[in-house]
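Morning!

This is the sequence you dropped in the shared folder:
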Amino acid sequence: MRRHIRIASSAAATGAVIAGATAAIAATQPDGGTNTGPAVDAVSALPSMNDTTRPGSYILLVTDGEPNCGGDLSSVLSELRALRSSIGVETFVLGIPGTDSSLISALNQMADAGGRALTGSTHYYDASTASTLNASLRSIVSTASCLYPLGRT
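The structure's back. Tokens below.
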């Protein structure tokens, strides 16, 4: 659900306009749409992701595990596998399933397809709490290698 908020010019931006905008933003709730498929498509189309001279390109996919806006799980899995096989881009999946345990399977499948799955029952990097997010990001950073070739000066 998209809401558009029209903000008046600075001359007309009174307290009432600002209060109205704040109320409209506060009243906006997520509608459940997760555009994982279009996001993966957009990143995979970036020229830097298709540069074969760049070693070790990665995607960090942060999701609740339910790609239900502009694609489905099957198409996301196919895209992640294609990125690995065609241009060598691997994906770390940072999952935020919340209280919906049915999303864990989808997160595990995305992690497997992305090529950077963890071993054990949870294949994705957990971001359910601040501490697991911190630990997951530290683990990803320590795992991913980045090489930057330097030219002669």
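Headline: The chain has five helices and three strands.

More detail when I'm at my desk.
O.
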